[in-house]
UniProtKB/TrEMBL annotation:
Lineage: Bacteria, Bacillati, Actinomycetota, Actinomycetes, Micromonosporales
Record has Membrane as a keyword: yes
Keyword Transport belongs to the record: yes
Keyword tags: Cell inner membrane, Cell membrane, Membrane, Transmembrane, Transmembrane helix, Transport
Record-given protein name: ABC transporter permease
Organism: Actinoplanes palleronii
Residues in ABC transmembrane type-1 domain copies: 65-252
InterPro entries registered for this protein in UniProt: MetI-like, MetI-like_sf
Length: 263
């Protein structure tokens, strides 16, 4: 019996390693090809890390990078300001509305980006009229776009703790609702909040469709335009953005694992 179990364990281990190697080749081979292609022009990577020279040589790319970083930061901030208090309040005071809130937050996941743009175009005509045509106005669209992922992360964090007991204990000691949210519940879902923020940043840095069709500037739009004049630099920037998103998700995974071990 022990021999059968040992053979089965070896087969399962061999199968896991085989799948892992195949997936590694599937993901790493295109990245290796991108790296090889981007080095065909001398000085591509050195220019990429020299910001003053990059800003002088490719001003549109530099503007796209700055715009995407600003959009990512503002989108994460707006998403957290709107979603975290709402999710906590629904858990504590309005539990019957939780299915409705979940449905509304997950709805953008079922709507293709091109359809979202068709619906947002008339809205952005008024946004442009009142706020101008700045690329930062994409923050409103991106906040809607990231709701499904951010809501799932925050909801999972709230499900992992006893929110009602913590709130009742704090209220019994004289704390107000703002104190309950800010000093009692929020520290216990810090990892979920960081997960939502990391996912938001990764999604905003990789978004192209909405920005392109609404004629706004971001990193992906700048890369698309750059590809028409400098393919090697375009591929190098694409690879850098891909690696940055991978690092963010890796940090998210490592942070989540460390929180679980501490718990």
């Amino acid at each position: 019996m022990a021999g059968v179990i040992a053979r089965r364990a070896r087969k399962q281990r061999a199968f896991r390693w085989t799948v892992l190697i195949l997936l590694g080749v599937f993901f790493l081979l295109p990245m290796a090809a991108m790296l090889e292609f981007s080095t065909r022009t001398a000085g591509t990577w050195s220019l990429l890390v020299d910001w003053p020279k990059l800003n002088e040589t490719y001003p549109d790319l530099a503007a796209g990078i700055v715009a995407s970083l600003e959009q990512a930061g503002l989108t994460a901030l707006l998403m957290l300001v709107l979603l975290v208090p709402t999710a906590i309040w629904v858990r504590l005071r309005l539990p019957r509305l939780r299915p409705l809130v979940e449905f509304l937050c997950l709805l953008p996941l079922t709507i293709p980006a091109i359809v979202l743009v068709v619906g947002l175009a008339p809205v952005y005509a008024w946004v442009t009229y009142f706020l101008g045509g700045s690329s930062l106005t994409l923050v409103f669209a991106y906040t809607v776009l990231v709701l499904p992922y951010a809501y799932r992360a925050i909801d999972a964090g709230l499900s992992a703790i006893d929110v009602k007991t913590l709130a009742e204990a704090a209220r019994g000691l004289g704390a107000g609702w703002f104190t309950v949210m800010w000093r009692v519940v929020l520290p216990n879902i810090r990892s979920a909040v960081l997960s939502a923020a990391f996912l938001t940043v990764a999604l905003v840095l990789g978004e192209f469709t909405i920005a392109s069709l609404l004629h706004r500037t971001n990193l992906q739009v700048a890369i698309e335009f750059l590809g028409k004049s400098s393919a090697t630099m375009s591929v190098a920037v694409s690879l850098t953005a891909l690696l940055l998103a991978f690092v963010l998700l890796l940090l998210l995974s490592l942070f989540g694992d460390s929180r679980k071990r501490k718990t």
